[in-house]
């Protein structure tokens, strides 16, 4: 049997989807050649990690999450930091597997294991639960039903869902996964990551410079209320789809505003030399680099490296931390 979601495409939903399409096109048109894409990609990862874990009670602030992403310890303790490290690894996993055409149980196990290893209060990472759980006043399906229900969801996800907009299918996957609550712990983070993965898989990635989870985190009571409301309406997802789509609309609106803030006053896109683009990509992966590491990695002279770095610093894309002798270069967060 295949899962069959219940919903109506309302005029309100269509209006939101149309606005999302317009915003997405603006972002795509404006950002194809902009130099700061790696910077915003890194920032969006941090924002996603902060918001999704904060929803579940992680106490770290956004700035502290940025520190953890750079390998700097905080006062919050290893458990909170491990949640962040795990989530960033989970985001890397779905980005690396954004071209996966079919999602299997093992893929979900792998994602859950990455997100939850070492931070679960009960159950085992990467295995469907064998115990009963309760989420507030909601009692998810019995453990014996989980595997079958997940199989039904995967059949729909890998088949009938493909005729629908990813804006809709990502919201449906999000809700249904949370409704099944297949793991003993870590379902919230995993469900939100799966929703993002669906957008990436369907090509709705907008250079991966958005963070819908911030929308949920900023009003957690509303987020939980919408999930509860859908259940109380007999799993009619019409209102949930409007809510989730509005979150994506607001998120892309923020991205567009940020693009306008960093675009040159003349309106022309920032076009980089190939070595500068390569340097930004290296900094996105390596966190920071010493000047000697930069010229060695790029295969240029010391002066050549500085000729590449200085315009990036002047443009506010890269910053130097440390002293003149021990300084290292890193991406400058917007």
Give an overview of the whole structure.
This protein has 334 residues and is mostly helical. The chain has 2 domains: 26-262, Fido-like domain (Fic-like fold); 274-331, Arc Repressor Mutant, subunit A (Orthogonal Bundle), CATH 1.10.10. The protein has helices at residues 11-31, 37-55, 62-69, 78-96, 105-116, 143-158, 166-180, 187-201, 213-218, 220-232, 238-262, 274-286, 291-298, 302-314; strands at residues 288-289, 318-321, 328-331. It has a 3-stranded antiparallel sheet. Strand 2 and strand 3 (328-331) form a beta hairpin. Helix 6 packs antiparallel against helix 7 and helix 13 crosses helix 14 (302-314). The longest helix has 25 residues, at 238-262. The mean pLDDT is 89.
Key phrases:
3 strands; 2 domains; globular; mainly alpha; Arc Repressor Mutant, subunit A; 334 residues; Fic-like fold
Radius of gyration: 21 Å
The chain-level structural class is: mainly alpha
N-end to C-end Cα span: 48 Å
Helix content: 55-70%
Q: CATH homologous superfamily of the largest domain - what is it? A: Fido-like domain
The total domain count is 2
Overall average pLDDT: 89
CATH C-level category of the largest domain: Mainly Alpha
CATH fold name of the largest domain, please?
A: Fic-like fold
Which architecture of the largest domain would the CATH scheme give at its second level? Answer: Orthogonal Bundle
Q: Can you tell me the overall shape?
A: globular
- Tell me the strand order in the biggest sheet: 1-3-2
Strand content: under 5%
In DSSP terms, counting alpha (H) and pi (I) runs of 4 or more, how many helices? Answer: 14
Number of strands: 3
User: Which ranges are low-confidence, i.e. pLDDT below 50, for 5 or more consecutive residues?
Assistant: none
Order of helices and strands: HHHHHHHHHHHHEHHEE
Taking the sheet with the most strands, its summary is: 3 strands, antiparallel
